[in-house]
Amino acid sequence: MRILFVGVLGAVFLQSCSALRNPLKIKNYVELETTEGSLVVGLYEGTPAHRDNFIGKCSSNFYDGTLMYSAVRNTEYSFGLRRGNREKDLLSADLNGGRTLPSEFNEKILPLRYTIAMKSVDGAENPEKSSDACLFFIIDGGKKLDIHEIRTTIAIKNRDTYKLYIEEYLSRPENAALKDSMKALQTMQTMKQYNERYAELMNIVRPQIDKDGIELFSISEKNIERYLKDGGVPMYEGRYTVFGEISVGEDVVGRLSGIGTNLDGVPKKEVSIVSTNVLKKKDFKKKYK
Q: What CATH number labels 23-144+232-288?
């Protein structure tokens, strides 16, 4: 019995090490039959809580009949909501009721084009960035990204933090003249000079941001190369847990991008999940390879 127990522990340890070395490894797949065609999602070993949750939901037919309830062309397509429900209400209820998953971020798992992630509540209400256990979305990313777009994304993500520190810096009595100068540049709409001065202020306040332990959003050069090559939505990095990728059905995602929406992002054409089916790797290879 002791030998068997040690053997089991050894197997678990080896599996854990494998997931750590290659979090993108896929052993389980889920077929999603939608009214627009079939999608097959490969689930990452590096996000076990999300993997097991999705397998459990799909095995119990949880998603059957649920809608693609929101679409942002070339960005994301959200699934899992039933008719008559609202995303905001369900996310809030799940968060307050403890029906969430712990975030499972990994520097090797990125919100690239054709990946899949779980929804979550944004902001101070959810500091741990826990994922909702029900609602998920497909990441598109559309056209190829360029380096300017990625740099702009980084700046936008850090904008509010810098704004807070710059306002505090300019509020000091000794900086009154600089504050008036910034206001004058903005009023005269000399934005080139204003932006140059603002960039200087960002450099001035950066040491205080670091001293206060505020972690600014950043993307490594290695990951920037991946976004440039594969596309995606860099702004979602470190915000939503990505737990899988579209292994079959990129053409279906293309069809989803062509569906019109109203001003709130609700698709004008109803798209729903008809059925789901869980596959092991060997069964996936037999069927699709």
A: 2.40.100.10
